[in-house]
Amino acid sequence: MKYLLGIDSGGTVTKAVIYDVDGNEIAQAEEKFDVIFPSIGYNERDFEQFRQGNINVMRKVVQNAGIDSGDIAGISMTGQGNGIYLFDAQGKPVRNPVLSGDMRAKEYIKKWYADGTAKKVAQRTHQSMWAGQLAPLIAWFADHEPQSLDKASYIVTCKEYIRYFLTGNFNMELSEASSTNCMNLDTKAFDPELFKLLGIGKYFDKLPPLVGPMDVAGYVTKEAAALTGLREGTPVMGGVFDIAACAIATGVTDNEKLSIVVGTWGINEYIDTKAFGDENFFMSSLFYLKDSYLMTEASSTSAVNLEWFMKRFMQEETREAKQTGRSIYDAVNGMVQSIPIDECPIVFLPFLFGTNVNQDAKGAFIGLSGIHTKAHMLRAVYEGVVFCHRYHIERLYQYKKDFKMIRISGGGSKSKVWVQMFADVIGLPVGVSKKGELGTMGAAMSAGIGIGQYSDVQAAADVFAEIAQTVYPDEQSTRLYEKKYQVYKKILDSLDGVWSEFE
């Protein structure tokens, strides 16, 4: 029997899962990471924790599977896109990595939109500019920490390091590279003119060579094999942008389905044959399918808000759940369900770690009064996250409206309460995957295509992508949410000129 290994290194967790070629999960492992906040709006991670965590999950998953690692026929990976990782010529980190939710470069974004630079860039990239992207972060480092860029020989993102660790080769995979505002989407190549427009031309040569998602980018080295238990010489693919991995793992291989990812980032996307985006559209990026693009509206405004609330305010409930053997998430879902929709006037703005409305926007609970409880606030968090997704989806409607259903993934998709809310607020049926860990599954699918096990993306999806259930909108709930969503939008409009006062 042949096996495939998929690795998914997100903002707070890295996971590894081994599948057989029939799409069955054999074993999994995970490690959690801490997010470092050196200053307001700064999001970083400890590099050594990141490195060791990825080594640990690879070693653990091989042990948990109880198989001969020589039977793993291919490896691929995905990970949190963008941010910035800097390495010297020996592959040593120059500094701690910066995550994609980082906002330190937001003043550059404001300037580039004001002076027309963003419009010129978008003519080549077909996407907006935002603070956590690779290109703006290079610009920030050039002005504030040039010594780090000078020491660096390679400028990459998260999953590119994992591939380097396994193979000793630095590359940038095409689908991820297309999200960074460093690539001309028409030529499908890094573009020195973009670097000149942004005033960072001297750093262009620090970008590594491009590699395709299903291309063999190298082989597991002797050193990596010794640390992980993998077999030396195992082929390692280029990997895939995380939002594309989740899309194909849920079976989104045509433009009738809308893919939603409820994770650290709230991702809303569909497949098209053209890249339409301008400086006001979040992102067009390359997809697996030939001559296809992912049209994406997204921001770091999704389930990460719930994690924050639970960590800050639900320590007692978390301890009680642990003592009784109950999942804290079951308890949270129960609290949300205990409050009827029309008995929760609170509106939550999910901008704790990012925003899709204003570079300066902050998180907020609006409408609180003395009678409200944690349960009311939790319902508001759930609703606010879904409203933010819908706000993004309404921007997608300018290009396409006739979606027939949603395919949902990410940690939030495990909550039946939340999935029903997505169906009610957006007004479309929501298909929930039968399998978990869709990032690792999308990566494993690309590994299988890369080694020739599957002829193409559709063939891999036919094996892996299974829907456990479809959740349909409830008409009465949809009407109630519609009223509240309109209030949400009015609040956003009314605060638009106020956010900068909170600096």
Q: Nutshell version of this structure?
A:
This protein has 503 residues and is of the alpha+beta class.
Question: What are the defining features of this structure?
Answer:
503 residues, 19% strand, 4-stranded mixed beta sheet, 18 helices, alpha+beta, 7-stranded mixed beta sheet
The major sheet is characterized as:
7 strands, mixed
Task: Give the neighbour order of strands across the main sheet.
Answer: 15-16-14-13-19-20-21
Spatial extent as radius of gyration: 22 Å
Note poorly predicted spans: none
Structural class: alpha+beta
Number of distinct beta strands = 21
| Residue share in β-strands | 15-25%
Please tell me what the overall shape is.
globular
Q: State the end-to-end distance.
A: 58 Å
Oligomeric state: single chain
Report the mean per-residue pLDDT as an integer: 94
Helix content: 25-40%
